[in-house]
Design a protein that fits this description.
- The protein is an alpha+beta fold.
- The chain has one domain (12-77).
- It contains 2 helices and 3 strands; from the N terminus they run ββαβα.
- The chain has a 3-stranded mixed beta sheet with strand order 1-2-3.
- Strand 2 (22-26), helix 1 and strand 3 form a beta-alpha-beta unit.
- The N and C termini lie far apart (25 Å).
- Zinc ion binds next to loops.
């Protein structure tokens, strides 16, 4: 997938009006990277194929994978 400044590109995002948290969706390939620890689920930094336990960009420990939704989910649910 194309990356922007070494970061994954979200296909969709919004700020949750109830929690104030940023939610986003990724291409399946990028989603897998986040789940497997090869990219950050908070700032979307792509680690370049290296598994990292802690994000070097934002300092976040492992992804909260529940905040990341696959694109097919958004295609069914959004708008
Ligand atoms: Zn990060």
């Amino acid at each position: 997938m194309p990356t922007k400044n070494g970061a994954l590109v979200a296909t969709w995002s919004r700020q949750n009006p109830e929690t104030g948290e940023i939610e986003f969706a990724l291409e399946k390939e990028d989603f897998e990277k986040v789940l497997q620890g090869y990219a950050c689920g908070t700032c979307l930094a792509d680690y370049g194929g290296v598994y990292l336990k802690k994000c070097p960009v934002c300092g976040e420990d492992r992804v909260q994978s529940e905040l990341v939704v696959p694109q097919w989910w958004t295609e069914r649910s959004i708008i």
